[in-house]
Design brief:
CATH class of the largest domain in chain A: Alpha Beta
Number of strands of chain A: 12
Structural class of chain A: alpha/beta
Structural class of chain B: alpha/beta
Radius of gyration of chain B: 17 Å
Number of strands of chain B: 7
Oligomer: heterodimer
Shape of chain B: globular
CATH topology of chain B: Rossmann fold
CATH architecture of the largest domain in chain A: 3-Layer(aba) Sandwich
CATH superfamily of the largest domain in chain A: Thiamin diphosphate (ThDP)-binding fold, Pyr/PP domains
Chain lengths: 318, 263
């Protein structure tokens, strides 16, 4: 099973062999797939050194010159070159795709310098940018093609680790066909509660669904793949059938998707009670791996189950 | 106002003089922008765009104003070359006009969004790779060299030996708060660029003969011209005065004095 990073870079390599305008810039990051790029398409690959600012400026120039440019670095470094992302790419709509590896607590226990808990908030402030997230490697191919054909720049949040359970569930339940969001169960069924999430944290929800199929007869799941801008027609069609919405994000609340979603639902006069599970509004210095830390700060399956029970046990609910 | 490419140095001097006058006129009328930083770069632009011996081909090559606050200096030249209607100079920064304080893609003959320093050079490097058949002239301010991103880009250009990159440093010696050598020293610039394997030239940035020697050369290596210029060139009370980096004369007597000196 490949990481999201390797899946993305290998699919992109296949596309690049047929399209010489596809260029990959790596900002001091290696990967097995990078080795293949170097060996198989050396003219379409550039090592940029530790120079995020120059990498984005060069990428924007390449884009202006007609290339389809992908820049690969650790997700947290978007903060270092945010000015260049905004100035050289976004303002002139010089289309680039940023592959940000290791979102959320993916690099734990490396500490907050390596763990972006506000990257969505930062990137969604930009115009001419859209943001993608994948719950598993199976979603990646669709995202690659979205990035290649989009009319704006892209930020792709790549999970660092391979999470087997989510992968296994997806293999059973989904096709590779791209969609901005995926609904479980399908859209024609209503539910009392909808859980909306994105990225690897979804596996916790899918695991719960397998364990508690009875409860999940009244709980639906909406998985966002394109997380920004919000595809509100698709989201509201599905979420609107529920009275309660639980948004789970491996991201601090300020500037999060749930904040934006609440405003959108309010503007549509949709009467839905919203609860959220987020990363705390602080930098996380505690030791522990990604799963251990998430368990401690409210993402444990027991905590999610408790939120579900709270809704389902309310008066008038089953 | 019509400019044509010429080898006649007297005519080129007239073009430069007219360009300075127009810049001074639309800047003092509007009150917007960085007049002194525009005046220092005029002879360089005149040599690039209007000297018949310059290798710059306006149909083919591209000039990137990394020093975006100096980019309005090119507007009169683009007007003279009939790329922009002359009336637009009177509409500079006005609601109904197309010319802005920082040039951008929407302006004919402009190929970069100006306003954030240290980025045009890397952007040009990307263009230079994507379009190896074109030359990219990048104008940087001397105080812009304080931006770390410039040096990231120099490493990159040097490593890839981007032969279609021409850097021009407008060495007017002043930033917004004073002389560069008193703020944070940037000299010796020749040695710095030589260490990046650039072909380095240094000359008086107002000497059209010397500028011709540089811009008339065929490009075989990444090159840099350190052009020693005078901030506020042509207006005696502005020359070499860092206070005029952002201040545009507004006193009618001062404005008239400047106009009379530029005529």
């Amino acid at each position: 099973m490949k990481s999201q990073r390797d899946e993305f870079l290998e699919i992109l390599l296949d596309r690049a062999k047929k399209d010489s305008s596809i260029i990959l810039l790596s900002v001091d990051m290696g990967a097995p797939a990078i080795d293949r790029w170097k060996a198989e398409l050396p003219d379409q690959y550039f090592e940029m050194g530790i120079s995020e600012q120059n990498a984005i400026n060069v990428a924007a120039g390449l884009s202006r010159g007609g290339k389809k440019v992908f820049v690969y670095f650790m997700a947290v470094w978007i903060h270092r070159c945010f000015e260049q992302i905004r100035y050289s790419s976004a303002i002139g709509n010089n289309k680039i795709t940023i592959l940000g590896n290791g979102v959320g607590l993916g690099y734990a226990p490396a500490g907050p310098a390596h763990e972006p808990n506000e990257d969505v908030a930062v990137m969604r402030t930009l115009h001419n940018f859209q943001i993608f997230a994948a719950s598993s490697s199976l979603r990646i191919e669709g995202i690659v093609d979205q990035c290649l054909t989009s009319s704006v720049s892209n930020y792709v949040r790549l999970e660092r680790k391979v999470h087997k359970s989510a992968q296994a569930i997806h293999e059973q339940e989904i096709s590779n066909t791209y969609s901005n969001c995926y609904a479980f169960p399908s859209r024609d069924k209503s539910s009392k509660m909808c859980i909306l999430s994105y990225g690897q944290v979804l596996r916790r929800i899918y695991d719960l669904r397998l364990q508690y199929m009875d409860k999940f007869s009244e709980v639906s799941i909406l998985e966002l793949c394109k997380i920004w801008p919000l595809e509100m027609n698709e989201i509201s069609d599905y979420v609107g059938t529920s009275s309660h919405l639980l948004v789970i994000e491996e991201q601090s609340r300020s500037g999060s998707i749930s904040e934006a979603l609440a405003l959108e639902l309010n503007s549509r006069r949709m009467n839905i009670e919203i609860k959220t599970i987020h990363l705390p509004s602080r930098y996380i210095f505690e030791n522990g791996n990604q799963d251990e830390l998430l368990d401690e700060i409210g993402f444990a399956t027991e905590s999610i189950l408790q939120e579900i029970d709270n809704v389902l046990n309310e008066k008038g609910m089953s | 106002m019509t400019f044509s490419k010429t080898t006649n140095l007297n005519v080129l001097e007239e073009y430069a003089k007219r360009t300075r006058l127009e810049i001074y006129r639309f800047k003092t009328t509007s009150g917007y922008g960085h007049l002194a930083s525009c005046l220092s770069v005029v002879d360089i632009l005149t040599s690039i765009y209007l000297d018949s011996e310059s290798k710059f081909d306006i149909e083919h090559d591209r000039l990137i104003f990394s020093k975006g606050h100096g980019s309005p200096a090119v507007y009169p030249i683009l007007v003279g070359l009939q790329l922009i209607p002359e009336k637009e100079l009177d509409l500079y920064c006005k609601k109904e006009g197309i010319l802005r304080l920082h040039a951008d893609y929407s302006i004919p003959g402009c190929f970069f969004v100006g306003g954030s320093l240290g980025n045009g050079i890397g952007f040009a490097a990307g263009l230079a790779i994507a379009r190896p058949w074109q030359n990219f002239y990048v104008i940087l301010g001397d105080a812009e060299l304080y931006e770390g991103s410039v040096w990231e880009s120099l490493l990159f250009i040097s490593h890839h030996n981007l032969k279609n990159i021409i850097l021009i440093i407008d060495r007017n010696k002043y930033g917004i708060l004073g002389a560069t050598e008193q703020m944070i020293q940037i000299e010796p610039l020749e040695e710095k660029f030589q260490s990046f394997k650039f072909e380095v030239h240094r000359t008086n940035g107002h000497d059209l003969v010397e500028l011709r020697k540089f811009f008339g050369q065929t490009q075989t290596h990444p090159r840099v011209l350190i052009a020693d210029t005078v901030k506020g060139k042509g207006v005696s009370f502005m020359e070499d005065r860092y206070e005029y980096h952002t201040i545009i004369p507004s006193d009618p007597v001062e404005i008239r004095q400047g106009l009379s000196e530029l005529l």
